[in-house]
Amino acid sequence: MRVLLHYDMDHAAPGLDVASCPEEDEARFAELLPDTEVIWHVLRPLTAADMDRAPKLRLIQKLGTGVNTIDLDAAAERGIAVANMPGRNAQAVAETSLLLMLSVLRRVVTFDARTRRGEGWPAGRALTGGELRGRTVGLLGGGEIASLLHGMLEAIGARVLYTSRRPRPEDPDWRELDELLRASDVVSVHVPLTGETHHLLDARRLALLPDGAIVVNTARGPVVDEAALAAELRTGRLGGAGLDVFESEPVDPANPLLALESTVVLPHVAWLTRETWDRYFEVAVENCRRLERGEDLLHRVR
User: How many CB atoms lie within 10 A of CB 228?
Assistant: First the structure.
């Protein structure tokens, strides 16, 4: 079975012919598509045109959870199965969310730059950081990532609230979204990108956050209205933002969020650990085996 690993990484699996292709190498991608039966997909969007160039394609296996980068309708029209692997990157993303919170609170990027310039000490009063202990962290989402992060934050001593699509009024930590935002010193995004969640944190909702609050997003960029967030950060009303994802990726170097000292930014790599890759390949290989045997796929989306 010919598998196209659409990322700059090699992986060998017995019985599978795995060819890797960096996401930015469009020429190699076009060359490999005609013989490809399975695509192991990461982030570069897969379109109907891509699928038309792959007449043997039977499965698009998302290496991760979010399938917003796959044209699901086009796949269904062509009889191409789509599967993902929920939870396999949860530990890495939860840890990165915590990292971003602490990095913003402790002004890590600013101190790093100052130290490299020989200006690290003494630190001015404006650079005095804060601690998570005693702060209220609001989690947008109640899935596995949010659950793992919930435990990490409580261990540090933070108060943790969360919201979810399904109301859970019996849980004392659950809040309606607007109520959660009003109470949160830090808000962390852990919801998929859908029509309902696009710009979920818009200007109105960002204005509900207390002065000095921090926004962290390791989910999908368009869940947050970037223009509204940048405006709140420029005025200094919000204390900062830790962002692994953006509305347009790769992020434009001219994006105003990148020019602000109050932001800590990463290029959509919250999931990127060796351990995550091991878990990804375990599921991806298993689904290839199941496809060969005509068995039900794990975590089939379409």
Answer: 17
Strand partners, 60: 39, 82
Q: How confident is the model at residue 124 (pLDDT cuts 50, 70, 90)?
A: confident
pLDDT digits (tens, 9 = 90+) for 220-240: 999 999 999 999 999 999 999
Does residue 136 lie within any of the structural domains? yes
Peptide bond before residue 22 is cis, with ω within 30 degrees of 0: no
8 φ, ψ (degrees, to nearest 5): -85, 75
Q: Are residues 154 and 221 in the same domain?
A: yes
299 within domain boundaries: no
Residue with tokens 């690290």: 120
Strand partners, 188: 139, 216
The end-to-end CA distance of the chain, in Å, is 21
| Token pair in block for residue 219 | 């989910």
Whole-number pLDDT of residue 126: 86
pLDDT, mean of residues 110-134: 93
In the chain, what percentage of residues exceed pLDDT 90? Answer: 96
Give pLDDT, residue 26: 98
- Same domain (yes/no): 119, 234: yes
Q: In sequence order, which residues have a C-beta less than 8 Å from that of residue 25 and are 6 or more positions away? A: none
Q: In what order do the strands lie in the sheet with 263-265?
A: 159-163, 136-140, 186-189, 214-217, 240-243, 263-265
Q: How high is the pLDDT of residue 25? A: 98
pLDDT of res. 14: 94
Q: Nearest-5° angle of CA 3, CA 4, CA 7?
A: 140
Phi, psi of 17 (to 5 degrees): -100, 95
Q: Are residues 58 and 117 in the same domain?
A: no
Token pair recorded at residue 19: 């060819």
Question: What amino acid positions are annotated as catalytic residues?
Answer: 220, 249, 268
CATH number at residue 187: 3.40.50.720
Q: CA 220, 224, 225, 229: dihedral to nearest 10 degrees?
A: -130
